[in-house]
Structure formats: structure tokens, C-alpha cells
Amino acid sequence: MDKWLEQNWVIKLGSLVIAIMLFLMVNMENQPTGGNQAGGIPGVTDGSRTLEDVELSVMYDEDEYVLTEAPETVDVMMSGPQNVLTLSQVTDDQEIFVDLTDEGAGVHYEQVQYRGFPSDLSISIIPATVRVALQEKQTASIPVDVEFINEEEIAEGYELGEPEVDPSSVDVTAGEGTIEQIEAARAVVDVEGASGPIEGSFDVAFYDDDGDEIDVTADPPAVDVNVPVTSPNKEVPLRIGRTGSLNDGEAIDEITIEPGEVTIFGPVDVLNDVSFIDLEDINLSEIDGDTVLERDVEVPQGIERVEPETVEIDVQLDEEATAEYDDFEIMIAGLNQDQSAAFIDPETGEVNLTVSGSESLLDRIERSDIEAYVEAEDLEAGEHTLPLVVQGPQNAGFQEEGTDVTIAIEEEETDNENEQENNGNEENDEDDEDNEADDDD
């Protein structure tokens, strides 16, 4: 007997028997009581198992319809042999579904079906019947609006331009009822701190009348948006000078700058210092007949840009004519408050003016459009010969301009000087009276 127990295979066999008995005892304690052979051997004993939140598939004609209502999951209760239940899981070969392939648009109450489960199991679906709704599929094209947020946070003085959207509209495919709810398609752009153009790709979302977002997808799902952001700006006029002279017998009828104003962009403090822009002078010696010239607009210092960058100069010529303005009064400009002046030559302070220009220009000129004067600013008392300055409409010539005019400037006594002189006279009168009194003594 001892020799038999010492055999290695006997010990191994005994260990196996004990392990099997322990396994059977544990499984019999855990067996459900609902089986036909409670406490029996696994694989023979029946039980049940419930799988919760199993995905529910809906089969329908996706080319024609859109699924608008259906539960996402159901519970699956499986009953059958315990060993099958223990190994059973929902795999790719198993499916819980409702079949609407032969149904049209509308609300349907359909029995939930299953397939791919072991034949040994009894399957129950909870709920057994579900409500499913289909709508006829439609595609609509919706124009895309751009909605700005944080507009109050844009860089100071800058302005948002009209956004460009590419593509300008997107397609949406959904049920008829869903499309009818769509009020707008929007791309939202945050402009906080913007001081230059905003470019990028932005998602498109759909909204109903109440501003609530509708859960449908745009095609394409995003659009390219370009938002120009302009710096502070203002319009300023253009000026152009003239050099040289026209051929004899010719006169400028009109010089037109098109456009006559340009828009300058830049910081506000720099804009305030710019009131006009001078263009390159026209050399009249190079003008032969009516001419159209092109000029670049110079960008003033501190200005970011000018629009437009070039302008056209239209020069119209005509035959030269003259007009006479007799006894035209000469003004004296720039005298100090304590100065007065008188004309020496011409003594009358008047001059006969000859104005040249095109006939149409001379017809438009009034005497009040012309000024003739000499500049006496900062001159001291005495006699001065000054050039005559004549100003009038553009494109008019004045033959007497630059003619010598002689004036005499005198310093007028101020009130203080008069008071001092009167005080001096009074003191002298008092001294005379004192002297007369002494003589009487």
C-alpha cells in the first residue's frame, strides 16, 4: 500500500480528482434556481443574462430618407445553457435592428429583430417594439452669413469691412421638416484686437428662428472667410503745380484731376496733420494740345497707404485771350497795428490789370475773383519797393504780377507814447509857472 501511494502518477491523479470536486462544488452554489436541473453540472444547467444599452441599428433606404427619430439602444435578455451564457457577448456577427427597408416617410412602430446569436439561447428584446420616424431626404443650398463677436474689442480707430465668403453658400441634406426649420447658416468670427485683415477657415452652423442651433452638417462643413479691417482714414484733396510755359497763343482752359480726392489711412494723430497732397508738377513746355497725364500719388510720411495710388490729369487747351481791369485797387498786407502806409508809386494805389487765359475762363472770371497786393510784413518805417502779387482763378495769367510798387511806412504813436508826451508837456508848464513866480519875487 505504501509503495502504491508513493507512485508519482497516483499523486497526480488524486490531485486532479480533488480539483474537479472543488470546481463542481463552487459552481453548484452559484447556479440560478430557475434552471431545470438546479445544482447540476455546468453546460447542462440553464440561466439568464441581460445585456444593457446594446446599440440599435435601423435599416432603411438612406438614399431616399433621413432617420429623424429612433432609440439609440435597447436591452437584450438571453436565456439558455450556463456555459453558452458565460461565453456569450455581442460581437460584430450579432446585431439588434429594426427593418424599414420597405417603409416610406412617416412614423412607424416596428418590432426589434436580432440575428447572429447562438441558437441555444432564447433572446428577448426590451422594449420589443420601438417608435421610428423617417423623413424624405432633401438637399437645400443656404447662403452663409458671417457673425462677428467681440466687435467692441477691435483695435481703436479700426473698422471692419464687408466679409468675403468662399463658397458663399453651403448645402445641407436632411429631412423636409428639418430643412424647413433652418433660418440661417452662419460662420462665427472673433474680431477681438483685430488691426489687420482676418483670414481663415470657419465652421458653418445652422440656426432656427429662435437662434437655436440645428444639429445637421453643412457640405462643405467650413468656409473660407476674409474680413478686411481698415485703419482710421480720411479724404484729402490733391493739388498740382505748373512749370514752364505753353506755346504762344495757347492757354489752359481747364486742368482736371480725376479723382480730385484720395483716401489716406494711418494713425489719427498723423491724419490730422495732412490736409492735402501735392502731385508732381505739370511741365507746360511738354504739353502740345489736349493731354491726359498719369501721376502717382505720393504717400505722406507716417501714412500707411493711399487709395487710389494713381490719378489722371486731364489738360484742356484753348486759344489765348485777354481781358482788362482798369483802376484795380492794390492792398497792403502784413502791416503792424502801430504802422500806417501810403503809396508813392503808383500814387493812386491802383493798377490796370491785364488777365490772360482761354475765352471760356475769362467769361467766368469776376472782378471780385482777383486780388492784388504787396506784402509788408515785418517791414520797418521808411520807403520800400515791393513786387505786386496778383491772385485769381487757376489757369489765369496776370501780366502785371511782379511789377514794382513803392510805399512809405510810418510808425504811429501809441496811447502810452501820447500819455508820456502829455505828461511831459504838463511838467514843462509847471516849471514855467514856477520860474515866472520867482521872477516876480
UniProtKB/TrEMBL annotation:
The keyword Calcium does not apply. InterPro entries: c-di-AMP_regulator (IPR053154), YbbR (IPR012505). It comes from the Bacteria. The chain crosses the membrane at residues 9-28. Keywords: Membrane, Transmembrane, Transmembrane helix. The lineage of its organism: Bacteria, Bacillati, Bacillota, Bacilli, Bacillales. Residues 409-441 have a biased composition (Acidic residues). PANTHER family: CDAA REGULATORY PROTEIN CDAR. Residues 396-441 are annotated as: Disordered. This is YbbR domain-containing protein.
